[in-house]
Amino acid sequence: MNARLPVACNRDCGGGCPLLATLEGGRVVRIGNNPAGGPFLRGCPRGFQAARQLYAEDRLTRPLARSGPRGSGRFREVTWAEAVRRVADGLQAVRDKHGDGAILALGGSASCRGALHDTGALNARFLNLVGGHVGESNSYSSAAARYVQPVMLGRDKPGVDPATLRHSELIVLWGANMMDCIMGCEWRARLRQAKKRGVPVIVIDPRRTETAKQLGTQWLPVRPGTDSALMLAVLHVLIDEGLTDEPFIAAHATGFEALRRRVMGRAAGPSTTPAWAEQVCGTPAADIVALARELGRRKPAALLPGLSIQRTCGGEDAVRLAIALQVATGNLGRLGGSSGAQNWGGLPDPDVGCLQVPQNPASSEIPANDWADAVLRGSAGGYPEIHAALNVGGNYVCQGADVAKSVRAMQSLEFSVCHDLFLTATARQCDVVLPATHWLERNDIVFTLANYVLFSHKVAEPPGEARSDYDILADVAELMGCGDAFTEGKDEDAWLREFVADSEIPDDEEFRRTGIHSGADQQRVGLAAFAADPAAHPLSTPSGKVEVSGAACVDAGLAAVPEARVLPPTAQRPLQLVTPKARLRIHSQLGALPWFRERDERALWIHPRDAAARGLDDGSPVEVSSAQGRVLCPCRVTEDVLPGVVALTAGVEPELDEAGRDVAGAANVLTSDRPTLPSRGATMSCVAVEVAPAGH
Ligand SMILES: Nc1nc2c(c(=O)[nH]1)N[C@H]1C(S)=C(S)[C@@H](COP(=O)(O)OP(=O)(O)OC[C@H]3O[C@@H](n4cnc5c(=O)[nH]c(N)nc54)[C@H](O)[C@@H]3O)O[C@H]1N2
Ligand SMILES: Nc1nc2c(c(=O)[nH]1)N[C@H]1C(S)=C(S)[C@@H](COP(=O)(O)OP(=O)(O)OC[C@H]3O[C@@H](n4cnc5c(=O)[nH]c(N)nc54)[C@H](O)[C@@H]3O)O[C@H]1N2
Ligand SMILES: [Mo]
C-alpha cells in the first residue's frame, strides 16, 4: 500500500505533534510534519524517527513467562491463551489471599494522550472491574505543582495558549527547557517569533541548555532547588524599588502583606536581598536586580515555569512564589502575561470523548514517588498493602528514583505483569511479559495539552503476535468475568466513532482526513475573567483571591509564608546533580535504538573549575557517587553548567557491574525517593553527589 496518512506523536513530552506518515509497499518510509498543522506546529526527531522504534529488531513479539529468577532476563515464550490465563490466575490468587485492592497499577506515561489507547486509563479501567487497585494520587511530573496550585488558585485552569506570546513584551523560561522537552508542539515556534520581535527571553537554568542558546536572549544560572530564594530576591527588588502593581495586588491577592514583611526582613528570617540570594543561588546579584527591573517594567510578561523547579526539596515554595511574582507584577490573567502556574495541562482540552475509568472500589492511592516504599512497607509505612503489580506503559525500575530500591520492591511482589514493546528493566522483574503495539499500529484520537486534537491512523501491522493493551486487557477481563463491562461490546473503531460523535468536532471524515481539529480560541488566557473583575469572577479559594499566604496555605500543610527551603551542600558530597530530560529520549524510550544512541549524549556535565579540582579532563571516565549508589560514565567539561552543579540526563537503563556500580550512566541509580513535603513529590532535580576519576 502506498499512502500518506496523518499520525500524531503520542508521547509524554506533551508534544502532541501533527505528523504525516508516508507508506510505500505497506511500510512507513518517512514521517514529516503534517501541513494541516500550519507553520507553528512542528515535530521533532523523536516523532520523525518513530519508525525506528516501530521496526526495531528487539521489539517483543510473543508473550513471555519467567523461567529464571526475577531480573535474570530468562523467559520462555508462551501462547496468548496461556499468557492470559496466567495473568487472570495470578491476579485472582492475590485477590483470594489478600482481598480486593492489593494490586498496584504501575505506569501510565506511555501513550498517555490517547483517547482510547491511554495505558493509564486502560489499566485502571480493567483493575476497577476486578475488585479495584492501588492507584497513583499524583505523578512524577508535577506532584508539588498539582498540590499547591488548587490551594492558591482554586479550580480554574491557570494556563495560557502558546499563541498569546505574540502579545508578550518579556518572557521568562524558569527551569523550562522547551527546545528539548517541547512541552507542547507550538512553544518553540512562538518563542522564536517573540525573540525575532526583539522581546527579551530570559532562561533560568543551572545549565546553558539548547533553549538558552537558541531561544533565549539571556542565560541566568541558578543552583538547583534554590529558585524560591531567587524569587524572594526578585520580589525584594520589586518592592524596594516600587515596581509592584499595588492596586492589582490589593484586588487579587490575600496574604501578600505577610510575604512583603518576610521579604523585607520585617519578620523572621533575613531580608531576601539580591546579595543574600547570590550566596544561596549562585546567580550574580546584579543579574537578579536586572531581572526584577525587567519584570517590573516590561508589561505584559509571561513567566513560564518548567516542572523541574518543583521536582526538588521545597518545590512547593517555588510554585507558590512563581505565582506570587505574577500577582506582584499584575501579569496574572493578562493577555501576553501568565499566572506563573504550570502550563502542563493548564487549559481544558477540546470537548471530545475518551475512555472512562469506573470508580475504584478499593479507593486507595499512593503518591507516585512512594510506589516502591509502599510496596516494601505496606501498612507498616501507613500505605495500603500491595502484593501484585500490573505495569502497563511505564518503566519505573529505570525511571523511578533509587533503582536499587525499585528492584527490591519489584522482587518482593507475589505476582507482576508488564505490557511493553521491549524487555525493559521493569519487564525483566515481572512474571509475565506481554508484547504491546506501538502507537503507529493503532488508530486513536490524541489530546495535546493545547486547544487542538489529532487523529492518528494505524499505518503498520503489529510484529509477530503483539497486541494492543486494549485487546489484551479485554481478554483478561473476559476470563475474569467482566469482558462485556470492559469493552461495552465495542471495538477500536466503535469507540473512536463514539468519542467524535459526542464531541465538538463537526465532521469525523474531515477530521480523519486532515488529522487535526482546532478549537475556536487559540489565545486562551486562564484566570482572565478573574483578573479583569475579581469581584464578579472570584476564584474558588476561601478568599476568592489568590492565596499567597495565610490560613488556606497552613490548612494545606504549607508554610504560612513561602520560604526558601534549600539543602546546603555537604563536605562529603559537595556537588549538586540535576538529571534533566534528554532531547533524543522520551524517558527510557528511544535511547537504546542505534540511530538515537549514536547521537545521544551520556556524559556527566561538569564545570572546568570542578573538573580541575578533581584532576578530570574532558572525556575522562568518572565515578559519580550519592548516598544511593554509584555510576561510571565519561565526563564532559563545559562552562554550560554552573560551578558546583553536575548534570546527567535521565532515561538510561541501569547496567550493574560485579561491584554493584552502574556502568551505563543511569541517573536514577543516584537519586533518592525522599519526597518534598507536603506534596510528597519527587526530588530528582537535585541530588548531592561527589565525582572522582573512575578507578580511584
Ligand atoms: N525530550 C524529552 N522531552 C520531555 C520528556 C522526555 O523524557 N524527553 N519528558 C516530558 C515530561 S514527562 C515532563 S514532566 C516534562 C517536563 O519536565 P521538566 O521537569 O521541566 O524537565 P527537566 O528536563 O527535568 O528540567 C527542565 C530544565 O530545568 C533545569 N533544572 C533542573 N533543576 C532545576 C532547578 O532546580 N531550577 C531551575 N531553574 N532549573 C532546573 C534542567 O537543567 C532542565 O534544563 O518534559 C517532557 N518532555
Ligand atoms: N532522574 C530522573 N528520573 C525521572 C525524571 C527526571 O527528570 N529525572 N522524570 C520523571 C518523570 S517527569 C516521569 S513522567 C517519569 C516517566 O516514567 P515512565 O512512565 O516509566 O517512562 P517511560 O520510560 O517512557 O516508560 C514508558 C514505557 O512504556 C512503553 N510503551 C510505550 N508505548 C506503549 C504502549 O502503547 N503500551 C505499553 N504497554 N507500553 C508502551 C515504553 O516502551 C516504556 O518502556 O520519569 C520520571 N523519572
Ligand atoms: Mo513527567
Question: Per the principal axes of the C-alpha atoms, what is the gross shape?
Answer: globular
Bound molecules: ligand MGD, molybdenum atom
Number of DSSP strand runs: 26
Measure the end-to-end span: 59 Å
Number of domains: 4
Total of DSSP H or I helical runs spanning 4+ residues: 25
CATH class of the largest domain: Alpha Beta
Which class of secondary structure composition applies to the elements? alpha/beta
Low-confidence stretches: none
Largest sheet: spatial strand order: 5-4-16-15-14-6
The major β-sheet equals: 6 strands, mixed
CATH architecture of the largest domain: 3-Layer(aba) Sandwich
Q: What distinguishing features does this structure have?
A:
696 residues; alpha/beta; N-terminal domain of TfIIb; Rossmann fold; six-stranded mixed barrel; 26 strands; binds ligand MGD; binds molybdenum atom
Overview of the molecule:
- The chain has 696 residues and is α/β, with parallel strands linked by helices.
- The chain is 30% helix and 16% strand.
- The protein folds into four domains: 52 residues, N-terminal domain of TfIIb (Single Sheet), CATH 2.20.25; 205 residues, Rossmann fold (3-Layer(aba) Sandwich), CATH 3.40.50.740; 225 residues, 3-Layer(aba) Sandwich (Dimethylsulfoxide Reductase, domain 2), CATH 3.40.228; 119 residues, Beta Barrel (Barwin-like endoglucanases), CATH 2.40.40.20.
- It is built from 25 helices and 26 strands.
- The chain has a six-stranded mixed sheet with strand order 5-4-16-15-14-6.
- Bound molecules: ligand MGD (2 copies) and molybdenum atom.
- The site of one ligand MGD has 32 residues, from helix 16 and strand 15.
